[in-house]
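Input record, target 12 of the design panel.
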C-alpha cells in the first residue's frame, strides 16, 4: 500500500470527522443534495443512504489515480468507476493511472485541456503533483484531492481521505480490551514502509492506545513493504525472535496474506491478529472464525466513490444533505472502524479483492 496523506496525527484528528457516527465510508457521505432514492455504493452491492441519483446538470469528471498495483489501489479505481455509472448526468474521464509522477502530471494536464468540469486526483506523490493541482484550480476546475494530500490547500477544493493515526489508535484499543485482564501481555507489530508518514502515524496511534493498558508491552516490531512476500518474510522474523506473544497488529491486509502464511508454516497460534485496510479475504476469514485473524481496521477504498459524489455536487453547484452549509466541506476524514466477527456482515459489501 503506497503512501497516503502526510498529515500529522493532530491535524488528521482536527479534520472534519464527517461520518464518525457511521461505521464505514460507504455510509460516511450520506448524500450530495437531498433525494428520494437510494443508490448502491461504490462496489455496486451495498446501499449508501441518501445518494441523489435523480438526473441533474450534466457533469464531466476527470479521474486520475496511481497505478493499481495493490489490492487497495485497484479497489479505489473500481469504486470510482462503479459510482460514476450510477449517475445518468455524470461522464467519467479516467486515466490509466501511473506511479510515475511526470506521467501522471501529463495525464492530468490532458484532462485540464479537455476542460472537464471537476477533477478527482489521487496523486502518486502529493507534494510532487501540487503544481498541477494548482494549475487546475486556476483554470476554474475544482479539484477533489483523494487521500494523499497536496502540499498546498490552494491546489484543491476538498480533501477526502483516511485516518492513519486512527487506524493505529483503534487497533491498539481493540487489542487492549482483549488483553486487559492478562498479566504481562505481549504484543508485536508488523508495520508498513517505515519512510512513509502514514506508517509512522499508524505506529504512533497504536503506541498511544497501548499507554492506556499498563499490563501490555510491545516487545517487537518489523517493517514490511505492503506486499505478500515482504509480509511473509518479516513475519517469519518476528515469529523467530518472539516465541511467545499475545497479539499481532499488521498494518496492511495485502502483506497480511504473507504474514498468515508464515504463521501457518511455523505452526503458531495462541495469539490474536488484527489487520488493516479491510480486504474481502480478511473479512471472510474473520467471519469463518478458524484463524488467529480476529479483526481488521478499515482504511476504506470506498472513499473514491464518495469523491465522485462530491465532484458531482461541485459540478452541479450543490451541497451535502444533512448539513446546514450551502457548500461541501473543505476536508473529510474517514473513520477507521474495527471489523470483528460480531459486525463483519455489515462490512462485507465494502471488502475489496
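The sequence produced for target 12 reads:
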Amino acid at each position: 500500500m503506497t503512501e497516503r496523506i502526510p498529515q500529522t496525527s493532530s491535524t488528521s484528528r482536527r479534520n472534519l470527522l464527517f461520518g464518525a457516527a457511521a461505521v464505514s465510508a460507504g455510509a460516511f457521505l450520506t448524500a450530495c443534495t437531498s433525494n428520494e432514492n437510494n443508490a448502491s455504493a461504490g462496489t455496486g452491492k451495498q446501499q449508501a443512504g441518501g445518494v441523489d441519483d435523480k438526473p441533474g446538470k450534466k457533469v464531466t469528471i476527470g479521474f486520475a489515480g496511481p497505478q493499481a498495483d495493490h489490492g487497495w489501489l485497484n479497489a479505489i479505481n473500481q469504486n470510482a468507476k462503479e459510482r460514476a455509472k450510477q449517475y445518468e448526468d455524470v461522464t467519467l474521464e479516467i486515466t490509466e493511472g501511473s506511479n510515475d509522477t511526470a506521467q501522471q502530471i501529463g495525464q492530468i494536464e490532458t484532462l485540464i485541456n479537455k476542460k472537464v468540469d471537476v477533477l478527482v486526483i489521487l496523486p502518486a506523490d502529493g507534494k510532487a503533483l501540487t503544481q498541477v493541482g494548482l494549475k487546475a484550480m486556476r483554470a476554474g476546475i475544482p479539484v477533489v484531492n483523494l487521500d494523499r494530500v497536496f502540499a498546498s490547500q490552494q491546489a484543491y477544493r476538498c480533501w477526502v481521505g483516511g485516518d492513519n493515526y486512527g487506524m493505529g489508535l483503534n487497533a491498539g484499543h481493540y487489542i487492549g480490551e482483549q488483553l486487559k485482564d492478562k498479566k504481562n501481555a505481549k504484543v508485536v507489530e508488523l508495520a508498513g514502509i517505515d519512510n512513509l508518514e502514514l506508517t509512522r502515524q499508524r505506529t504512533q496511534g497504536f503506541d498511544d492506545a497501548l499507554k492506556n493498558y499498563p499490563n501490555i508491552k510491545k516487545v517487537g516490531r518489523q517493517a514490511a513493504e505492503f506486499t505478500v512476500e515482504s509480509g511473509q518474510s518479516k513475519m517469519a522474523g518476528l515469529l523467530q525472535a518472539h516465541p511467545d506473544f499475545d497479539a499481532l497488529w499488521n498494518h496492511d491486509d495485502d502483506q497480511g496474506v504473507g504474514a498468515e502464511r508464515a504463521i501457518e508454516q511455523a505452526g503458531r497460534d495462541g495469539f490474536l491478529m488484527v489487520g488493516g485496510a479491510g480486504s474481502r479475504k480478511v473479512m471472510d476469514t474473520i467471519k469463518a472464525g478458524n484463524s488467529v485473524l480476529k479483526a481488521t481496521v478499515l482504511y476504506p477504498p470506498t472513499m473514491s466513490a464518495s469523491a465522485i459524489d462530491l465532484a458531482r455536487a461541485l459540478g452541479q453547484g450543490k451541497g451535502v444533505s444533512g448539513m446546514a452549509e450551502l457548500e461541501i466541506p473543505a476536508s473529510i476524514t474517514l473513520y477507521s472502524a474495527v471489523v470483528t466477527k460480531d459486525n463483519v456482515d455489515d462490512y462485507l459489501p465494502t471488502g475489496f479483492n
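The radius of gyration is 20 Å.
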